[in-house]
Design a protein that fits this description.
Elements: H1 23-40, H2 46-53, H3 57-69, E1 73-75, E2 90-92, E3 98-104, E4 108-115, E5 120-127, H4 136-148, H5 153-156, E6 159-166, H6 170-173, H7 181-188, H8 192-200, E7 204-208, H9 209-220, E8 229-234, E9 238-244, E10 247-248, E11 263-265, E12 271-273, H10 275-278, H11 280-289, H12 310-333, E13 337-342, H13 346-362, E14 372-375, H14 382-397, H15 401-409
Parallel strand pairs: 3-6, 6-7, 8-13, 13-14
Antiparallel strand pairs: 1-2, 3-4, 4-5, 8-9, 9-10, 11-12
Helix pairs in contact: 1-2, 1-3, 1-15, 2-3, 4-8, 9-14, 12-13
Length: 410
């Protein structure tokens, strides 16, 4: 249901390469190639689509007509004044498909309604001490119905579903944010996808919050986007993700690329997790030790100047921890770019990124050069936006065999 291409228990890693693509899969593959060409070059002509996809002009023309009939693309005004026949620009129809993206985080919930062309049509965020399984799904269901009420009847039928971004291990670690044994038990006994489908009446796909955020960040980057990158979002804990060979690396459980669980050496010279050194939870711990008040609510609204000098100390330690994690991960995956972002105000994020760059430059290199460190774009909304993006991408654009197979079966 999550679009994963993981092997079945009885499937050999090479079995997939021996399977012939069915006629229906070939048709969807070509259709998705055309739709991707339109999405990545808004206003592209039919002739340009044919050149980019390698498909014949008649095939492209037929596919465009089919996509137009389904409401996924629009024809713009004819461009004149150029050599040859006038070109008709092909555009994504903003109302061709819609999706909801929801993040259930450790300290906040966020939900967005997104159109096909990328515009955010509705947005809601609420902060809390920790997520309550007994009430949060009903709340999100009510919000999703209010958001979809903004759409007309035709548009509501074009809602593909909801992507749900959550951290792994809420039941195991909810005590770290104040939850008790009963809260842990309520999450442990819950099927989050089924609970959300019941609350919203929509198909729901579950994603790790770091993976969803990483995908959102990849789509926000300017062209040419990299085939390989890693991503860190500093939040209550660390959200992280990896793009490898142009694919979101989710692993067999959907929770891979958990670089926050990477073991590094902390400022006391002890082995520790990146989660417990570079996160806002780590900052809160340092504030308590220093006898300073710990801010609550939305970090965007904290008085960050009141957190000095602990803030500067934490930024330096967090920067070193993230730089070490980037270097160690890069030794395995060979990515040229690491994106670092946070749920903090932009000036604080930029200070953190500067520390990551400084500590990266101080690390030794062996077989690879230091990677480029870049500030993120999506910020705090990356997980919810990524959760909205992924269902649409996998149902309309992805040419991965597993995603196409799921569409054929549907």
């Amino acid at each position: 249901m999550d679009g994963s291409t993981s092997n079945r228990p009885d499937e050999d890693v090479f079995d997939l390469g021996a399977r012939k693509m069915a006629a229906g899969e070939m048709r969807l593959n070509n259709e998705r190639a055309v739709l991707t060409a339109v999405a990545t070059r808004q206003g592209v002509s039919g002739a340009e689509i044919a050149r980019r996809t390698g498909l014949g002009p008649q095939t492209v023309s037929r596919i465009i007509s089919d996509l137009e009939e389904r409401g996924l693309v629009l024809r713009g005004e004819v461009r004149r004044g150029h050599r040859g026949q006038p070109a008709t620009p092909i555009l994504l129809n903003p109302g061709g498909a819609f999706s909801l993206g929801c993040e259930i985080g450790w300290r906040h919930m966020e939900i967005v309604l997104r159109g096909l062309a990328g515009e955010i049509l509705a947005h809601h965020r609420r902060d809390y001490d920790f997520p309550h399984a007994s009430s949060i799904f009903e709340e999100i269901g009510s919000l999703s119905r209010l958001m979809m009420g903004r759409l007309n009847a035709v548009e509501q039928h074009r809602v593909v579903g909801m992507g749900l971004a959550m951290p792994g291990g809420i039941a195991r670690n909810i005590d770290l944010v104040g939850g008790g044994p009963e809260d842990a038990a309520s999450w442990r006994d819950l099927d989050s996808v089924k609970a959300m489908e019941k609350a919203t009446g929509l198909p729901v796909w579950l994603y790790n919050d770091g993976n969803a955020a990483c995908w959102a960040e990849l789509t926000a980057l300017p062209r040419p986007r990299p085939n390989n990158m890693c991503y860190f979002l500093v939040s209550t804990f660390i959200c992280a993700g990896i793009i490898a060979d142009g694919r979101l690396w989710e692993g067999p459980s959907g929770n891979s690329a958990n670089m926050g669980s990477m073991i590094i050496t902390d400022s006391a010279g002890q082995p520790n997790f990146v989660h417990l050194v570079a996160s806002l939870m780590a900052l809160e711990t340092k504030l308590r030790v220093a006898g300073l008040p710990v801010p609550t609510g939305d970090p965007q609204r904290w008085d960050w100047s009141a957190l000095e000098p602990v803030l500067s100390e934490w930024l330096n330690e967090a920067g070193k921890a993230i730089a070490t994690a980037i270097a160690n991960t890069g030794a395995v995956t060979e990515f040229p770019l690491a994106v670092v972002d946070g749920v903090m105000p932009r000036p604080i994020v930029e200070r953190l990124v500067e520390r990551v760059r400084r500590h990266t430059a101080q690390l030794p290199t062996l077989t690879f050069d230091h990677v480029e460190i870049r500030s993120g774009i999506r910020g705090v909304s990356a997980p919810s936006i990524g959760a909205a993006l992924l269902p649409v991408y996998r149902q309309l654009f992805s040419r991965e065999t597993g995603d196409i197979e799921l569409s054929v079966r549907a």
